[in-house]
Design goal:
alpha+beta; 3-stranded antiparallel beta sheet; 2 helices; about 20% helix; about 30% strand
Length: about 110
């Protein structure tokens, strides 16, 4: 039995998930059940970070994935962000890296620069 705190909403339900059957208890809504099952079977995360930028008003640009990616790919993605440099001008929501690390997710700018 795995115990987690649900992070889908501010309620913070204390979930208990049977790792064999993926049965979830302790959730107050269906989103908690879905979160518990996903967190045990295939944890997903949205990656946020920053990249260097040339010609911008700041030396770094905040970026994020446009969708959740498998948690196991996070460090690989962060390594790619560390070596990437954007060129100004950049618009918020602009795709900077397509299909990052073969996840199907794109790295997008979080602000104009």
């Amino acid at each position: 039995m795995k115990e987690l705190v649900c992070i889908v909403c501010p309620r913070g339900c204390h979930l208990k998930i049977d790792e064999n059957t993926l049965e979830v208890s302790g959730n107050s809504c269906p989103k908690g059940e879905e979160y518990g099952k996903t967190e045990i079977s295939n944890p997903m995360r949205t990656v946020t970070g920053s990249v260097s930028v040339i010609g911008g008003i700041h030396p770094k640009l905040a970026v994020r994935t446009d969708r959740a990616i498998p948690k196991a790919k996070m460090f690989e993605i962060m390594k790619q962000l560390h070596s990437f440099t954007a060129k100004s001008p950049v618009k918020r929501g602009e795709i900077l890296i397509e299909n990052v690390c073969d996840t199907g997710a794109n790295i997008i700018a979080s602000r104009d620069m």
